[in-house]
Amino acid sequence: xxxxxxxxxxxxxxxxxxxxxxxxxxxxxxxxxxxxxxxxxxxxxxxxxxxxxxxxxxxxxxxxxxxxxxxxxxxxxxxxxxxxxxxxxxxxxxxxxxxxxxxxxxxxxxxxxxxxxxxxxxxxxxxx
Length: 128
Description:
The chain is an alpha+beta fold. It has helices spanning about 40-55, 55-85, 95-125; strands at about 5, 10-15, 15, 25, 30-35. The protein has a 3-stranded antiparallel sheet, with no helix packed on it. Strands 1-2 form a two-stranded antiparallel ribbon. Helix 2 (about 55-85) packs antiparallel against helix 3. It starts with a strand and ends with a helix.
């Protein structure tokens, strides 16, 4: 079944056909709907499907990296939320300062991991 990737979440969107036999795609989690209504667009879409079949392995690698990056960003958001819950640091006792510093270290580690993943992705795509 032909598919295209959702540009927000990377999920595979399967091609569906409208009542008037025009292709469209829906990503239920994101709520995105993509309609291809003109002849030129339909021709380009069919050509893209032929190319996507050849690029199946690179797509699956890219999608896996995208999901890993999204998970890291969600974790960073969670750590930032915990830091925000603690409030301003000049009101902290020693225990809260240690907690805040631990959370900041965790955030730095997550961001370093994200940077490392990005560098590895760039190196893989730069290889011939």
